[in-house]
Amino acid sequence: MSSENGPVTAVIDSLPYYDNDLERDPSLKERAEKLIQKELGKEVQSLHPRVPPPPTLFANSPLLQQEMARVETHQPMPQIDTFRYQLPGPTNTPATEEDWEAALKNAQAQLEHQRLRHMNFALLQQYGSNAWRIHNFLLEQTAKNLEKAVEDLKQLTVEVNRERKNFQTGVGTQLNTLETRWTELISSVLQIEMANVALEGEIDRLNKREVELSNL
């Protein structure tokens, strides 16, 4: 809705906590329920502007994204490649010096890999439990904060609805008083009009009686 001076805010004249039109008219209530079910059955095309967009998981890790896609499609996990942990010797017979050097380098690489794994396991055993406890503590605090925010929002909603109900109930009482007063005034006006009609009839009768007496 708009005008020459700019947009005009639509005023909705409704007191849902006071009006009981649906209770007085069952057919109106049935139509309203059908409209509600129709709206609920519609597919939501757009979310509320305050609803954040869905998060992108593992945006900086393509490997984890690939693993997440595998889990979502219920694909089996690929078997572990154990070849990297083996120490194969030269395959050529007879083996050359280059073949033995390649096998030796592979063994050294495997040894270094196992050393790093052992170091990581040692660090994990020493610091991992505390890091995990701290992580769980932070998650619990975050969950408690979110639960408190939800409870505060629910309480605020209850208070807003209570204020609306009290306000509308008070306005409804005033409307009842004004409606009763309006009915009384209308009744008084009708009584006055009926009295005026009766008085005019009496005046006409007296005027006619006066004319009759003057003609005698």
Automatic annotation (TrEMBL):
<keyword id="KW-0539">Nucleus</keyword>
<keyword id="KW-0507">mRNA processing</keyword>
<dbReference type="InterPro" id="IPR008409">
    <property type="entry name" value="SPF27"/>
</dbReference>
<keyword id="KW-0175">Coiled coil</keyword>
<dbReference type="Pfam" id="PF05700">
    <property type="entry name" value="BCAS2"/>
</dbReference>
<keyword id="KW-0508">mRNA splicing</keyword>
<dbReference type="GO" id="GO:0000974">
    <property type="term" value="C:Prp19 complex"/>
</dbReference>
<dbReference type="GO" id="GO:0071013">
    <property type="term" value="C:catalytic step 2 spliceosome"/>
</dbReference>
<feature type="coiled-coil region">
    <location>
        <begin position="97"/>
        <end position="216"/>
    </location>
</feature>
<protein>
    <recommendedName>
        <fullName>Breast carcinoma amplified sequence 2</fullName>
    </recommendedName>
</protein>
<comment type="similarity">
    <text>Belongs to the SPF27 family.</text>
</comment>
<dbReference type="GO" id="GO:0071011">
    <property type="term" value="C:precatalytic spliceosome"/>
</dbReference>
<dbReference type="GO" id="GO:0008380">
    <property type="term" value="P:RNA splicing"/>
</dbReference>
<dbReference type="GO" id="GO:0006397">
    <property type="term" value="P:mRNA processing"/>
</dbReference>
<keyword id="KW-0747">Spliceosome</keyword>
